[in-house]
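Dear U.,

For the methods section draft, I wanted the exact inputs and outputs in one place so we can describe them consistently. I've listed the two proteins in the order they'll appear in the manuscript figures. Please don't edit the token lines directly; just add comments below if something needs changing.

First protein:
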Amino acid sequence: MGFKFVGRFQHNLDDKSRLTIPSRLREGLGSPFYATVGLEKSIVLYSLQEWEKISEQLQQLPMTNRDARAFNRLFFSGAIECEPDKQGRVLLPLHLIKHAGLKKEAMIVGVLDRVEIWSLEGWEKYEEEKFGIYEDVAENISSAGN
């Protein structure tokens, strides 16, 4: 069983498009780790081990399926290998910054097997919407598992 990412951390993107990844999360991500386009306008970070696992799963999708091709193209073409500097900062490329709508403030969120980076505004909007239906969602996923 791998590292489980939890918590949320607010950090600012600096003038050189670098973002500090909290040490607790860097420890689990290792070095290098991978960043790519996430769902719902986020950037997603994976440890090398998790990246290899996901890559293998996605490679199994049939390339005759239009959705599989589209997803793989966007997911892998948007990916970069990250090596934090001595201060724990990673340089985020413009395409990922644009995808997440990052301006200055970012919310870095641990989500079990991955880390997500959201614009602060995007995260606050998401959280406000989803907390309103949190109990309904919990019931729905609980009944789906049975």
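Second protein (the one for the lower panel):
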Amino acid sequence: MDNETLKTIRTRRTVRHFLNEPVSAETLETLCRSAMCAPSACNKQMWQFVVVTERADLDAMAAFLPSAKMLAQAPAAIVVCGEPAETFGFYWQQDCAAATQNLLLAAQSLGLGACWCGLFPREEPAEATAKFLGIPDGVIPMAVLAIGHPDPAAGEKPKDKWKPQKVHFGKW
């Protein structure tokens, strides 16, 4: 069984090396629109997205986020934020994770590469990102995604991640 959706899912990979080509504002909006199609608890849709394209801002974020050094190469980033007060308990994390996966798959389907860099629940990177981007209190940056055109010279290729021993039918 194969179709375009399954092909996109199976060929998606983390990309940390990018070409020096911009990503259009229209494409970045398309990625955010795709993220907003994700399911959310009670359909609260408590996410917010900060799109970063200024080279100086991307470089600064790469400097203060140890796990996001690739931002220094990426032409764009999208910070996925949650509003915990707008949902029940900790469901906001699941909602933002679903939105992030939609965004990653949309990027792959458009020929872009992306790298998901976690911020929350680590306080220091989440707070530093919130302060740098002027994110208001009560809104928590969950992840930053470096986005761009993959550099084919980097040799980043998808891997077959299927492990049948991890699937249990009926009962464990």
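Candidate sentences for the figure legend, describing the second protein: The chain has one domain: 13-151. The first helix runs from residue 4 to 11.

Thanks,
Y.
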